[in-house]
Design a protein that fits this description.
CATH architecture of the largest domain: Alpha-Beta Complex
Number of strands: 11
CATH superfamily of the largest domain: 2-enoyl-CoA Hydratase, Chain A, domain 1
Order of helices and strands: HEEHHEHEEHEHHEHEHHEHEE
Distance between the termini: 81 Å
Largest sheet: 7 strands, mixed
Helix content: 25-40%
Structural class: alpha/beta
Radius of gyration: 23 Å
CATH class of the largest domain: Alpha Beta
């Protein structure tokens, strides 16, 4: 055995060689400052394990935790006109879009999917605040209409997760027109007697709050989410008065009758399953990995080329 080559040299190399450590292994909680290991944070659905602060979560991460076994199918959303107003501020609108797409890896600010939660078939839509502030443009309007049409076609409830800074200024009046369009989409669900549940996340503001985000049959919010039309700073400057502590936060709105529940993100899935099955007139969900009773599921016809999906049979027993 060569002591120098087998022991001394590796020891010296280990002292002087630089190890490459990934920069994203730890995340600092913006609320309490705790350093959180990325895997632990991901397992807790981006909720701080020290102070329970709910950090931002992408629609895909949310759907992976929401749907059974993280399995879901994306619903196709019609493409709107690109840059209809040829808008330019510090950047051209198409350049901003490309930057947001590179940053998030998503095509737009809303993702629509279908699948099962607790063996209960649903259609879900979620906004991505990291994509231009989750702003409501023509694509978001098309996405909500596509989600509502799909829910009606499959006789499934619609669950929507809102997170937005309001309407998208780069699309001007065309963005504001999504408010009545999405209101009509919600009315389609009402006429079909299908539940529409809204989960308001931080932040939900502006024209989104003034339209589809506050039209649900049930309104659930995540803890400490900012939910408003105009922000508290704007209101304070307008009325020149100090606002109450926690004004426009989820807990404040719950106390004043604007919300039905404030639910921790890790408990939200179970609560949605209970509410959805109750509203659809179904028995409680089967716990564990067992399938739901066969009489509660029916196979709906799907467009050509798509796999058939189980859907809730709403006919009375």
């Amino acid at each position: 055995m060569n002591w120098i080559s087998n022991y001394v040299r590796p020891k010296i190399n280990s002292l002087f060689s630089r190890r490459e450590v990934p920069e994203n292994l730890w995340t600092k909680c913006p609320e309490c400052g705790s350093m959180l290991f990325h895997r632990e944070l991901s397992d807790n659905q981006n909720v701080c394990t020290n102070c329970e602060h709910h950090m931002a979560i992408t629609p895909r991460e949310r759907f992976n935790a929401l749907f059974d076994a993280g399995i879901f199918t994306e619903v196709t959303v019609p493409e709107p006109i690109h840059d209809p107003l040829h808008f330019k501020d510090q950047k051209k609108y198409p350049d901003r879009m490309k930057g947001a797409q590179r940053k998030t890896g998503e095509k737009e600010a809303m993702l629509v999917a279908e699948g099962e939660i607790g063996r209960t078939p649903i259609v879900a839509a979620a906004q991505d605040f990291s994509f231009m502030g989750g702003s409501m443009g023509m694509f978001v309007g098309n996405a909500i209409i596509a989600a509502a049409e799909r829910a009606v076609a499959l006789k499934r409830p619609l669950v929507l997760f809102s997170a937005a800074g309001g309407a998208r200024m780069q699309e001007g009046i065309l963005s504001l027109m999504q408010m009545p369009r999405t209101t009509v989409a919600v009315e389609m669900l009402r006429e079909a007697n299908l539940p529409y549940i809204v989960v308001l996340t931080h932040p939900t503001t502006g024209g989104v709050t003034a339209s589809y985000a506050m039209l649900g049959d049930v309104h659930i919010a995540e803890p400490n989410a900012l939910i408003c039309f105009a922000g508290p700073r704007v209101i304070e400057q307008t009325i020149r008065e100090k606002l109450p502590e926690g004004f426009q936060r989820a807990e404040y709105l719950l106390d004043h009758g604007m919300l039905d529940r404030v639910t921790h993100r890790t408990k939200l899935r179970d609560e949605l399953i209970t509410i959805l099955r109750m509203m659809m007139g179904l028995p409680p969900a089967v716990m564990g990995d067992l399938p739901a009773p066969e009489q509660n599921l029916a196979i709906e016809a799907t467009p050509e080329g798509e796999a058939a999906s189980p859907a809730v049979d709403t006919k009375p027993a």
